[in-house]
Design goal:
The protein is mostly helical. It contains 14 helices and no strands. Helix 4 runs antiparallel to helix 10, helix 4 packs across helix 11 and helix 8 runs antiparallel to helix 10.
Length: 328
């Protein structure tokens, strides 16, 4: 047996790069992922540069109550005579801030618990998973209402509340993936030659689970935005911050629907588009990272057809000499 050469050690990190390149290629070939990326990118771009393009402020009265859309105000005015475009842009900034920040908190907490639980196992796994089960069985929205009422209605408090309540799914998924990765041959070899636990985790396990963590974080963004809108609609949001949920709440409380001012609750459409975009991206990333998940989208008939076609392709690829040997 020959010892590994330096060239082998140098080329070892190339696998994660090939994995990321393959992931990007699959994302580019997925129409759903492209649509999701375009929609989410447009909302993020609007939130970043929108305030500089909108000529009105969110506290500036520019017309009458519930004025309909017009050339100067494409989405009309609210009950205070404030331009709806300005409100939607400002609401998008805060809602996306809540969604992305809470998703990052969920990724750090859930990913850390999943890695520790999956790698060490034993009593550590039992304790962490029992805590995770406790958070999973408690209804999310009532718990968020209670915690928000206790901590206060600030925007930062809402981010912490949401981020610390949606980590359970991430922890479960990452734990299962870590338990699978740590039993693979290259991890066993690294352990056998004396690699430390920290090196095994950060060098071999984390690069393999990072794409799955990113995919689940994308889905967590949608959950965080939706939960923020629900809390704001129930009056538990920051009263001084304009979010999409706050816009919907004000529209219903001030009878926008009864007055026929449908443009006053267009924030609901924005939430639906962003949540759908995140779901499309997350689903595409999951399919790209774990091809076994695609089997769940196949019917028994289509699965059988795919199996038959693979067998036919394998038979066609065999040479006449191989076919003769197989017949013998």
């Amino acid at each position: 047996m020959t010892a590994p050469t330096s060239a082998t050690l140098v080329t070892e990190p190339a696998a994660p790069r090939r994995r990321r390149g393959q992931l990007w290629a699959i994302l580019r070939s997925s129409r759903e992922a492209i649509v999701g990326l375009v929609v989410l990118g447009l909302f993020v771009l609007l939130a970043l540069v929108g305030p500089a393009l909108v000529p009105y402020g969110i506290h500036e009265r520019v017309g009458g109550v519930y004025e309909p859309p017009s050339p100067s105000h494409p989405l009309g005015l609210d009950d205070g005579g404030i331009d709806m475009v300005a409100l939607l842009v400002q609401g998008g900034q805060n809602s996306l801030l809540v969604g992305f920040t809470a998703a990052v908190i969920s990724m750090v907490v859930g990913g850390g618990i999943g890695i520790v639980s999956g790698y060490f196992g034993g009593w550590i796994d039992s304790v962490l998973m029992r805590i995770t089960d406790y958070f999973m069985v408690v209804p999310l929205l009532p718990l968020a209402i209670i915690v928000s009422a206790v901590w206060g209605a600030g925007l930062m408090n809402m981010i912490l509340v949401i981020g610390l309540l949606i980590w359970t799914t991430t922890a479960r998924l990452i734990r299962a993936e870590v338990r699978s990765v740590k039993e693979r041959a290259y991890v066993q070899r690294a352990r056998s030659i004396g690699a430390s636990r920290s090196r095994i985790v950060f060098r071999h396990i984390v690069p393999q689970i990072t794409p799955l963590l990113v995919a689940n974080t994308t889905l967590a963004i949608a959950s965080a935005i939706f939960l923020e809108a629900a809390l704001a609609f129930l009056g538990l949001g920051d009263p001084n911050a304009i979010t999409w949920g706050k816009i919907i709440e004000l529209g219903f409380v001030r009878a926008a629907v009864s007055a026929g001012a449908w443009w006053a609750i267009l924030a609901g459409l924005c939430i639906a588009l962003v949540v759908t975009a995140c779901s499309l991206i997350g689903q595409a990333v999951e399919d790209a990272l774990n091809p076994r998940l695609k089997v769940s989208h196949l019917t028994p008939r289509s699965f059988q057809l795919h199996s038959i076609r693979r067998q036919e392709a394998a038979l066609d690829a065999r040479t006449p000499g191989d076919a003769t040997k197989g017949a013998r």
